[in-house]
Amino acid sequence: MTFTDALKDYIDGARWFGGKGREWQVGAVRRVGTLPGSGDGLSVVIELVEIAYTGAEPDYYQLPLALYPDQQERLGHALIGTLDGEDGREVFAYDAVHDREAMGLWLRAFASAADGKVTADDLAFHRVAGHDLDTEAHSTLFTGEQSNSSVAFGEDSLMKVFRKVTPGVNPDVSIHEVLTRAGSDHVAALYGWLDVVDETTDSTIQLAMLQQFLRTATDGWELALASVRNLFAEADLHAEEVGGDFAGEAARLGRALAETHATLAEHFPVGVRDAEEMAALADAMRGRLRAAIEVVPQLAAYEAGLDATYDALAALTDVTVQQVHGDLHLGQTLRTVRGWKIVDFEGEPAKPLSERLLPDSPWRDVAGMLRSFDYAPRVVAMTSFALDAGGDDQEAQLAYRATEWSERNARAFLAAYADGDLGETEQTLLDAYVADKAVYEAVYEARNRPTWVQVPLDALDRLSESKDPA
Ligand SMILES: Nc1ncnc2c1ncn2[C@@H]1O[C@H](COP(=O)(O)OP(=O)(O)O)[C@@H](O)[C@H]1O
Ligand SMILES: O=P(O)(O)O[C@H]1O[C@H](CO)[C@@H](O[C@H]2O[C@H](CO)[C@@H](O)[C@H](O)[C@H]2O)[C@H](O)[C@H]1O
């Protein structure tokens, strides 16, 4: 097997690869840097792999490789293939994020940058002042569902290696930098980032980000699932009567998001969308729906119903926009002993970077959280139904409890975020962003978790029914 074929197999099986379900080939593979500290025994290089789609613009994915002259048994699961080394001899290429030795080179390079910047080849390691890195810490690759690869260094720092990369600023880095310098309580502090000057486009590509490791963090999605399981275990009680009620946390999350939006509005440009721009936004949402129908044909059933939602959006004017998170859901929140933290400001992975950097409505983030409050109980219910333990009566009771949980937490979150009732404009924005997110989710689920596709489809069903004048 050629190295290119081996690369295709490896990338196709990776969770972080966003091109699943599309026709693609490995295009040019470009080596953009070699980590300082590389030598004869281990050389760590960064490759940019072009993903060439049929009839569409290519994507570029980062693949850091640990190259060894001999096979490494401990890394068997991360072997990609063999290729010719610089001296013409065959070397074994492993996905470097799995390798502690390789990750040590990243950490030491960041440490050597102290409070400024250090360069090697075209690679530049940047640091934000205020934290001494623990260079003895061992790396552990985070497993689980992620669009990028995150590696913890002990309990000191966490490095996120961006997988899909684009020339220019990655909002995850720029937003964390601004919020860190502003002293925000709601993010993990940024410690540094790695970028490279790409010779072919003569622009900078951000490759990785180093930040504070949140030692006491529990994933918001996991907490929500635990709360739902508690409720389901006592299915004849209401949410407020059960121990694991989430409403207090939902309200704290609402406040954390409101404060984060306020800080972002202070430090990034704020704008106003006029009537023409709102009509264009509604058209873009309609376009997204039409494109999504190509992937998930069941969506066609909601097209007519969603028109009313998008028409109402198109009729708005003078809508405030600002820097937002862009892909907020419970899995992007962490509960620490010091309150909620929001992570992953990269925006929706499927959108072009240029679009993700534009000011947007904060209601997009609110909608993302509401979608998550809908997902959590439905995912737990799906697993319970799959066990088929209690028959139709129990299924109906759990479905009722699921709706109760979603509505209760959505209410608590919204009341804390908006500090009062929503006006008509806010509700219109919220409905449109909820619809747009559910359309995006339907495509995301069809490609990544087909058994979950019904969750967003059901939400669209409810939404389009509630707007249908008939
Ligand atoms: N600073 C942090 N400290 C500890 N864990 C974190 C931190 N940031 C993120 N995580 C964990 O890593 C996971 C992936 O992070 P995220 O930024 O969402 O990556 P991705 O871009 O791959 O989705 C999160 O769900 C969270 O559990
Ligand atoms: O990889 P990212 O975290 O950037 O986000 C993508 O994956 C998410 C799934 O992990 C997906 O979120 C959807 O599923 C969540 C449950 O796993 C649910 O809480 C969210 O509400 C739902 O949107 C997200 O949309 C996608 O961009």
UniProtKB/TrEMBL annotation:
Keywords: ATP-binding, Carbohydrate metabolism, Glycogen biosynthesis, Glycogen metabolism, Kinase, Nucleotide-binding, Transferase
Domain Maltokinase N-terminal cap, chain residue ranges per copy: 10-99
Pfam families assigned: Mak_N_cap
Pathway participation: Glycan biosynthesis; glycogen biosynthesis
InterPro entries given in the database record: Kinase-like_dom_sf (IPR011009), Mak_N_cap (IPR040999)
GO MF terms held by the record: ATP binding; kinase activity
Assigned EC number: 2.7.1.175
Biological processes annotated in GO: glycogen biosynthetic process
Group of enzyme by EC: transferase
Reactions it catalyzes: D-maltose + ATP = alpha-maltose 1-phosphate + ADP + H(+)
Entry keyword annotation includes Transmembrane: no
Family: Belongs to the aminoglycoside phosphotransferase family.
Subunit field text: Monomer.
Name of the featured protein: Maltokinase
